Amino acid sequence: MTPERKNILAVEDEPKILEVVASFMESRGYRVFPAAGGEEALAIFDRENIALVLLDLMLPDMPGEEVCRRIRRSSRAPVIMLTAKVEEENLLEGLGLGADDYIRKPFSLKELGARAEAAIRRASDDLTPLVAKNSFRGGDLTVDFEKNTVKKKGREAALTPSEMRLLAALMKYPGKVCTRAQLIDAAFGDEFDGYDRAVDNHIKNLRQKIEDDSKDPDYVLTVHGLGYKFGGE
Ligand code: CA
């Protein structure tokens, strides 16, 4: 079985740069969706499962910063900004756009490849727990982070993305108490715009899906006055 190719969205209005970047990333084993402007890029982003965005800062129809901002409304996919001038980098640092990295033009393809791979690796690390174990209490609960599935007593538990992220955050450091603030940061990052008590509601729903008795949980344990921890063995 060949591993699934990851999708990269490459946004650049200079056709030659776009072509070189696209063919290089294709040669590294990625599938590249090219876009010459912001609107086109956002349409592709909505339609495809994009693992990384390479984003030119100066685009004809809208600034790259606006593209980045709109991507961040719904996604934590890594964004690497491609900047033409040092002044643009200063601008980026000040804006807090939610870009993960930036590369100054002209860049070497080797550098681009290394930065792209690092950004994708960091993003997938996010959801990968440190524990290799994925089956708890003799198979009562099984978690497959690659397939994004959770089974309770062999039946799919149908977690929402928020519940899945919370579970992953709790499992990342088994036995360690996570505060609400830490859970928000780990599970939702910048896109979370609710109050921290909203985490409690997600926890409640998560428990209803994976616990035998949500009032006497085995997996998502309350640590009074501190937060939550994962109790699976
Ligand atoms: Ca440009």
Summarize the structure.
The chain has two domains: 7-125, Rossmann fold, CATH 3.40.50.2300; 133-230, Winged helix-like DNA-binding domain superfamily/Winged helix DNA-binding domain (Arc Repressor Mutant, subunit A), CATH 1.10.10. The protein contains eight helices and eleven strands. The protein has helices at 15-27, 38-47, 64-72, 86-95, 109-125, 161-172, 180-187, 197-210; strands spanning 7-11, 31-35, 50-56, 79-83, 101-104, 135-136, 141-144, 149-152, 155-156, 220-223, 227-230.
Describe this structure as you would to a colleague:
The chain has 233 residues and is α/β, with parallel strands linked by helices. The chain has 2 domains: 7-125, 3-Layer(aba) Sandwich (Rossmann fold); 133-230, Arc Repressor Mutant, subunit A. Helix content is 40%, strand content 20%. The protein has helices spanning 15-27, 38-47, 64-72, 86-95, 109-125, 161-172, 180-187, 197-210; strands at 7-11, 31-35, 50-56, 79-83, 101-104, 135-136, 141-144, 149-152, 155-156, 220-223, 227-230. The longest helix is centred in the middle third of the chain and has 17 residues, at 109-125. Calcium ion is lined by residues 13-14, 56, 58-59.
- In CATH terms, the superfamily of the largest domain is Response regulator
Strand fraction: 15-25%
Distinct helical segment count = 8
Largest sheet, if any?
A: 5 strands, parallel
The number of domains is: 2
Which bin fits the share of residues in helices? Answer: 25-40%
Mean pLDDT: 84
Level-2 CATH architecture of the largest domain? 3-Layer(aba) Sandwich
Order of helices and strands: EHEHEHEHEHEEEEHHHEE
Question: What separation lies between the terminal Cα atoms?
Answer: 31 Å
Beta strands, count:
11
- CATH class placement of the largest domain: Alpha Beta
Q: What ligands does this structure carry?
A: calcium ion
Strand order, sheet with most strands: 2-1-3-4-5
* Principal-axes shape call: elongated
Instruction: Indicate the structural class.
Output: alpha/beta
